[in-house]
Structures are given as structure tokens and as C-alpha cells.
Design goal:
By secondary structure, the chain is an all-alpha fold. The chain has 18 helices and no strands.
């Protein structure tokens, strides 16, 4: 077990540190090769990992490609300007509307899409509005939090959702029927808590006259109207695919590819540029890190977690839900939610309490917000902000995360009792 844990820690440190521009996927693959060479995993384990993550990974790539094309079109910038103008210059309304927009984007385009695409747009608009640095930071911290806390309703809203749904053979419709309540609760409670904590930094009035007309940012209005229709059809296709038991990546990746071709026809996108800039490193990150994590499973870590979950279950369903959710949350905040979700899924594979599977997802989606390295979305979010000249320190972020996350997580976990 010592070798497996040591290898995992070294790999994770390099993923977070990224010395000399070493990319996360490259580090994860090096870790996976090391695990195989050192005998921590075997070839059968590697094939098992690929079987677990391939659908989630390619679905994620498809969603990001779709998001990138919509971003080139001006879709998200249009939404951001409309959101700001809808507030009528009221700072508190703008704060709430920006979080509702973040919730919408995280749900439909995944938490990583919200971090990569929406964050720089909102930052640029806030600078145009001449908001002070403390106000901008408050909006950014709140937006970063909602990108994960709202990534619950659909299977494709988060990589952790896809992996778990595939692992336990949960259909698209079945998943949505359970998680729609926690999603609504998470969105409402998150906005409430975030406003309560950050309200002192939210201005009473904002000069929205500084913003340009929303329609002026669109590269092609016809394609913009088509995009709404396309998104509706794509969402329906997920239910159709669920009925025929088809992999979600067929529709996510296929939808992204089709919309890229449509966008190219309208002269908005350049396929080569979009495909080149897609986050392919995430593919190698998913496979590589999961191989390393599988070594922890072989070393017996999942057995200890199974015993812990059984202990929680002896105290009743409510304690089991809260205990499982917070275990996932704490592990995610310490060692990233991607390895956590796989370890916990394996630990839960024999459970008869379906609520614990969803508690694991909620904990893995919200728990990472307690530390800067808890999720890939947060790491991407911090990287995007750093490139834009906004630097958020470890303790500054963690102080905010530990203040906001536990109470919201507790309430969202309890909302599962409304479903089960």
C-alpha cells in the first residue's frame, strides 16, 4: 500500500504544481506508466480503467467543443450582457443573475465549460463596468463556486456524474429525476449563502450604460437562433439515447462535431483551430490518473472506505447520506475529486442504498471547493484568472471555501431525503 499511496501523492503533486509547464495529462500518463512498471497495476487493470472512463472523457470533449463554438459565436457574451442589463443597474440583482447564468452554463455545458469560457467573459464585463477589485473578486469567487455546486442535474454536467452513472448503469432520465431536486436546492442555497457572505462588496448601483448592445457581439444572428434550437434537440437526444441504452458520448461528442460543421458553414468557426485547442490533455489526465488510483484500490483503500460507509449505514439513512457525502467532500478537497469519485464508486459498488451513490456525487462536486486543487474545474478557473491578471492565493481561496462549502453541502445532501 505504501508504494501505491506514494506514487499517487507524487503524481497528484505534479498535477497541481505543473513545474515548467508540465501538463496535467502528461503527468498522469507518466504516473500510470510508473504504476504499471512498478507492479501497482496490471494490464487488466488498465483495460478496466479505460472501460470506465472512455465514455465520460469523450462526452466531456464533445461538450467543450460545443462550448468553444458557441463562445466564438458570441453566445455566452450575449447571455452575460443580457444578464447585466436585465438587472437594471441594481448590483444585488446583477450578482444573483450572474450566479443564475453560471448555474445554467454549469448544468448545460459542464463545470469545466463554465470555468474556461464564462469566467473570462464575466471578468471583462466587470472591468468595462469599472467595478472595484474587491467587487470583481467577490463576483469571481461566487461564480467559481456555482460552477461546481450547480453541476448536478444532468449526467453530462460533470465528469464525476458521467463516470458514476456509467459505473452503476444509471440512465439519463433516472439520474435527472433524482438530481433535479438537489440541483435546485444547491443553486438557491448557494446564491443565498454567497450573497450573505459577500454582500458588503456588492455595489448598490452599476452603470450598465457602459455595456454595448448584446446583439452587437454576435458573429451571426441566424446561427445564434439555430443554436437555441440545436441545444433543445441535443437535450432531447440524450433522453432518446437513454431509451436505447446508448453511450452519452455518442450524442455529446456527435453534437459538438455537428455544431462545429454548422458553424463552419456559416463562417464562424475554423475546425482545425477548435479541434487543436480542445482540452485533449483531459483525455490523458482521466485515463492516467484513474490508473494510478486503481493502484490504491488494489492496495485495499476501497475496502477501508467500504467499512466506513457500512458503519455510517448502521446509524440510519440520514447519517449514511451525510457521512458518505462528507467523506467524498473531504477526500476531494485533499486529493482532487477525480480520483475520489472512482475510489468511492468502487467502495460503494455493493451498496443497496441508492441514495449513497448520489450523495457521493454531491460530495465530489461540492467538496472540492474547500481547496484550490479540489477539482480540475477550479484549477482551470485559477489558471484562466491568473492569465487575466487576477491572482487568488491558497489561503485566501481556502478560507472562503471552508466558510461556504460545509453548510451548503449539508443542506444539499439532506435534500436527497426528499427524493428517497
Amino acid at each position: 500500500m505504501i508504494l501505491a499511496i506514494s506514487l499517487f501523492i507524487v503524481t497528484l503533486v505534479f498535477v497541481i504544481w505543473q513545474p515548467k509547464g508540465l501538463q496535467i495529462g502528461t503527468t498522469a500518463i507518466i504516473g500510470a506508466i510508473s504504476a504499471y512498471v512498478l507492479g501497482v497495476v496490471n494490464l487488466e487493470d488498465v483495460l478496466s480503467v479505460i472501460d470506465i472512463v472512455w465514455d465520460a472523457t469523450f462526452a466531456f470533449i464533445g461538450i467543450i467543443i460545443l462550448s468553444m463554438v458557441l463562445d466564438e459565436l458570441g453566445f455566452f457574451e450575449w447571455c452575460a450582457i443580457k444578464m447585466a442589463k436585465l438587472s437594471g443597474g441594481n448590483g444585488n440583482k446583477m450578482f444573483i443573475y450572474s450566479l443564475l447564468l453560471g448555474s445554467f452554463v454549469a448544468a448545460l455545458f459542464a463545470n469545466d465549460g463554465a470555468a474556461l469560457i464564462l469566467t473570462p467573459i464575466l471578468l471583462s464585463k466587470m472591468r468595462i463596468l469599472k467595478l472595484n477589485p474587491k467587487t470583481i473578486l467577490s463576483f469571481l469567487l461566487a461564480g467559481g463556486f456555482i460552477s461546481d455546486s450547480a453541476s448536478l442535474p444532468f449526467v453530462f454536467s460533470n465528469l464525476t456524474n458521467i463516470v458514476t452513472a456509467n459505473y452503476f448503469s444509471i440512465g439519463f432520465g433516472e439520474y435527472l429525476s433524482v438530481m433535479i431536486v438537489p440541483y435546485i436546492v444547491s443553486t438557491v442555497v448557494s446564491i443565498g449563502f454567497l450573497w450573505l457572505i459577500l454582500r458588503k462588496d456588492i455595489p448598490a448601483k452599476v452603470d450598465i450604460g457602459l455595456l454595448k448592445d448584446a446583439n452587437s457581439v454576435l458573429k451571426n444572428k441566424t446561427l445564434f437562433y439555430i443554436s437555441w434550437f440545436f441545444l433543445a434537440i441535443l437535450l432531447i437526444s440524450y433522453f432518446v439515447g437513454d431509451y436505447f441504452n446508448l453511450p452519452i458520448s455518442i450524442f455529446a461528442l456527435g453534437g459538438g462535431a455537428i455544431f462545429l460543421m454548422i458553424s463552419t458553414f456559416f463562417g464562424v468557426s475554423k475546425p482545425y483551430e477548435v479541434i487543436k485547442n480542445a482540452p485533449w490533455q483531459v483525455v490523458w489526465f482521466s485515463v492516467g490518473l484513474y490508473v494510478v488510483v486503481y493502484g490504491l484500490k488494489n492496495a485495499g483503500l476501497t475496502d477501508y472506505l467500504s467499512l466506513l460507509i457500512e458503519y455510517f449505514s448502521t446509524a440510519g439513512d440520514t447519517v449514511a447520506i451525510i457521512g458518505t457525502g462528507f467523506t467524498s467532500a473531504i477526500l476531494s478537497s485533499i486529493m482532487n475529486n477525480m480520483p475520489t469519485i472512482m475510489i468511492m464508486d468502487i467502495a460503494l459498488q455493493d451498496t443497496t442504498n441508492q441514495a449513497l451513490i448520489y450523495a457521493n456525487i454531491i460530495g465530489s462536486n461540492l467538496g472540492p471547493k474547500m481547496t484550490p486543487f479540489g477539482s480540475l474545474a477550479t484549477l482551470l478557473w485559477l489558471h484562466v484568472l491568473s492569465k487575466k491578471g487576477v491572482h487568488i492565493g491558497f489561503w485566501q481561496y481556502s478560507k472562503f471555501g471552508f466558510m461556504v462549502t460545509p453548510p451548503i453541502l449539508l443542506i444539499v445532501l439532506l435534500s436527497l431525503k426528499l427524493v428517497f
